[in-house]
Structure formats: structure tokens, C-alpha cells
Amino acid sequence: MKRTVLDYALKIRLPLTLFIIAVSFILTFYISRAERDSVGYAPEQPIKFSHKLHAGQMSIDCQYCHIGVSKERHAIIPSVNICMNCHSVARKDKPEIIKLTHYYNEGIPIPWKRIHKVPEYAYFNHSVHVNKKIDCASCHGDLKQMEVVNQVKAFTMTACLDCHRNPSAYLPYLSKVNLGPENCSACHR
Ligand code: HEC
Ligand code: HEC
Ligand code: HEC
Ligand code: HEC
Ligand code: HEC
Asked: Which residue among 50, 78, 151, 172 is least packed, with the fewest CB closer than 10 Å?
């Protein structure tokens, strides 16, 4: 009697328990992976600014606000006076625009929360990518549909290298595209 209970414990219970532990470990690893890579990060912003409205419905060009993309490393978040080109008139009486006007009048920069970020020790430059006609959406998803900005792709080293090694798979709309660099010093300068 005792022996069969032990047999059962060793031959069935134990492997089964180990199997369940392994499965739940693998599951949590993959499920929490997106979180670790910042995918899905969509913080609440100090002003409810909508890309869907401005870049989508009103078709304002990305570069009207993100003036750095074709010239330099950073895309740049627009300063309040770019908003005031329109909002000194448009929707002046709305609560969010009253808040916006307050920042403008007081000369306080809007404390927008940063969403996409590579660590300091890695080098990324918008202009080289954008000037090769790589669409913003290939890296940031379709902002024209976003009420709130949401990170849709991971910016890990693997993600950079996947596209650099095989750009035509990621950029099917470009008829000709060079490979991106894979040497360490290109991105770690
Ligand atoms: C009217 C100005 C305006 C236009 C047009 C605009 N943006 Fe933005 N964008 C902003 C502001 C303001 C923020 C910061 C607040 C936020 O995240 O919503 C921002 C944030 C972003 C971010 C996230 C920045 C971060 O912190 O990581 C991305 C990516 C972005 N914009 C891409 C685009 C793309 C692509 C387009 C064109 C399809 C576009 N934007 C058009 C004003 C604009
Ligand atoms: C080219 C003109 C233009 C620029 C530039 C612009 N907006 Fe707007 N925005 C509008 C118009 C027009 C509306 C109203 C659209 C509607 O409701 O149909 C609007 C609506 C809004 C609303 C919603 C207001 C409400 O009804 O509650 C917010 C918030 C807003 N804008 C913030 C911003 C911010 C922040 C910036 C700068 C980063 C900015 N806008 C730049 C034209 C502009
Ligand atoms: C090849 C991928 C790629 C493309 C294409 C791209 N971005 Fe980015 N974007 C990034 C990365 C990576 C970051 C984070 C950069 C950092 O931390 O220095 C970023 C950050 C940003 C930010 C935050 C502020 C900043 O400058 O760091 C904005 C705004 C932005 N991108 C807008 C745009 C717009 C608008 C376009 C298209 C005109 C675009 N991006 C095209 C990868 C890309
Ligand atoms: C969707 C594709 C794609 C993604 C994603 C991408 N790149 Fe690139 N990158 C390219 C291509 C294509 C080139 C080559 C452009 C050329 O020289 O024609 C390039 C060139 C570069 C260069 C060489 C030019 C320079 O600035 O000196 C660097 C560095 C670079 N990428 C860094 C990065 C980093 C860092 C990331 C990730 C955060 C990244 N890239 C993500 C497509 C991509
Ligand atoms: C195309 C750009 C690119 C190239 C080429 C590249 N890296 Fe990276 N690397 C990154 C980015 C972006 C990060 C930060 C994001 C992350 O942690 O994945 C990073 C992170 C790292 C880290 C931090 C550890 C980690 O994984 O978080 C190490 C170490 C590293 N890289 C070493 C290297 C070495 C060694 C090479 C050459 C064989 C290399 N990298 C080539 C873009 C690049």
C-alpha cells in the first residue's frame, strides 16, 4: 500500500507538478514580456491631445509639429506656441484649451510624458531613417488612429537588428532599401 502511494507520487505527481510550474513560468515570461519592452505603454497626458483628431481627421502633417524628424536625431515634441497658432482662436472656451492657454501665458512647458525611449548608451537618429522614406508607422504604428499615443513596437536591440538584417521584410513599400548596420559601434558610439 505505502509503496504504491510513493510510486504514484514519484511517477505521476512529481512530473505533473514540475510540468505545471514550467508551463506557468513560460506563460508569465511571455505575457509580461510586452510590458518589459514598454509595448502598450500609454500614459495619461497633461492635456488630452488627440493624434486621431489632428493628424487623422484634420490631416495635419507630422512634421508640422515634429520638426526634427528629417533634420536631426530627435523628432521633438512641439512647444505650446505651435498649438497656439490655431488655439488662440480654435475652441478657446473648452476646458482643455483653457489649460493649454494657461501654460502658454505662464510660459510653462507642458510636462508631456515621454513614451518611446532607447537607453542613453544606444544611438538612434530619426533623420537617417526618415530621409530613406521609412514611414513613421513602421516603427510607431498608425498614429492617425490613436486617441492616446500607445507604444506598439519594442525598441530592443533585437528589434533594431531584425529590420537592419532584412529591411525589405519590414519595409515592403520601398522598392529599394539598403541594409542597416550591424556593427556594435554604429549604435553604441
Ligand atoms: C498638432 C501637432 C502634432 C501633430 C500634427 C502630430 N503630433 Fe505627434 N505628438 C504631438 C504632441 C503634443 C505629443 C506629445 C503628447 C502625446 O504623447 O500625445 C506627440 C507625441 C507623439 C509620439 C510619442 C512621443 C513619445 O513620447 O514617445 C509619437 C511617436 C508621435 N507623436 C508621432 C506622430 C506622427 C507619426 C504624426 C503624424 C501621423 C504626428 N505625431 C503628428 C503633436 C503632434
Ligand atoms: C492647424 C491647427 C491646429 C493645431 C496646430 C493644433 N490644433 Fe488642437 N484642434 C484644432 C481644431 C480645429 C480643433 C477642434 C476640432 C473639432 O472638434 O472638430 C482642435 C481640438 C483640440 C482639442 C480638443 C478641444 C475640445 O474640443 O475639447 C485639444 C485638447 C487640442 N486641440 C489640443 C492641441 C494641442 C495640445 C496642440 C499642440 C500640440 C494643438 N491642439 C494643435 C486645431 C489645431
Ligand atoms: C526606424 C524607426 C523609427 C521611425 C521610422 C520613426 N521613429 Fe520616432 N522614434 C523611434 C525611436 C527608436 C525613438 C526613441 C528615440 C530615443 O529615445 O532617442 C523614437 C522617438 C520618437 C518621438 C519622441 C521624441 C524623440 O524625438 O525622441 C517622437 C515624437 C517620434 N519618435 C516621432 C516620429 C515621427 C513623426 C516619425 C515619422 C516622420 C518617426 N518618429 C519615425 C523610432 C522611429
Ligand atoms: C523598420 C526598419 C528599421 C528599424 C526598426 C530600425 N532601423 Fe536603423 N536603419 C534602417 C535602415 C534601412 C538603415 C539604412 C539606411 C541607409 O543607409 O540607407 C538604418 C540605418 C541605421 C543607422 C546608420 C545610420 C546612422 O545613424 O549612423 C543606425 C545607427 C541605426 N539605423 C540605428 C537604429 C536603432 C538604434 C534602431 C532601434 C532602436 C533602429 N535603427 C531601428 C532600418 C531600420
Ligand atoms: C542597430 C543598433 C544596434 C547594434 C548594431 C548593436 N546594438 Fe546593442 N543595443 C541597441 C539598443 C537599442 C539597445 C538597448 C535596448 C535593449 O536593451 O535591447 C542595446 C543594448 C545593448 C546591451 C545592453 C544589454 C541588454 O541586452 O539589455 C549590450 C551589452 C549591447 N547592446 C551590446 C552590443 C554589441 C556587443 C553589439 C555588436 C555585436 C551591439 N550591441 C550592436 C542597439 C544596437
From this structure: 172
Question: Is residue 112 within 6 Å of ligand 4 at its C-beta?
Answer: no
Chain center to CA of 114: 10
Does the beta carbon of 129 lie inside 6 Å of ligand 3? yes
Confidence bin at 2 (pLDDT 50/70/90): low
C-alpha to C-alpha distance for 121 and 137, rounded to whole angstroms: 25
Distance, in Å, from the CA atom of 122 to the CA atom of 116, rounded to the nearest integer, reads 13
Which residue CA neighbors atom 42 of ligand 1 most closely? 65
Cell numbers standing for residue 147? 486617441
Angle (nearest 5°) at CA 161 between 157 and 167: 145
What is the per-residue burial (b if ≥16 Cβ within 10 Å, else e) of 165-183? eebeebbeeeeebeebeee
How far apart are the C-alpha atoms of 44 and 46, rounded to whole Å? Answer: 7
pLDDT at 36 over 60: no
C-alpha cell at 17: 507538478
User: CB of 21 closer than 6 A to ligand 4?
Assistant: no
Extract the C-alpha cell encoding 36: 518589459
CB-CB contact of 37 with 158 (8 Å):
no
Please give the mean pLDDT across all residues of the chain. Answer: 91
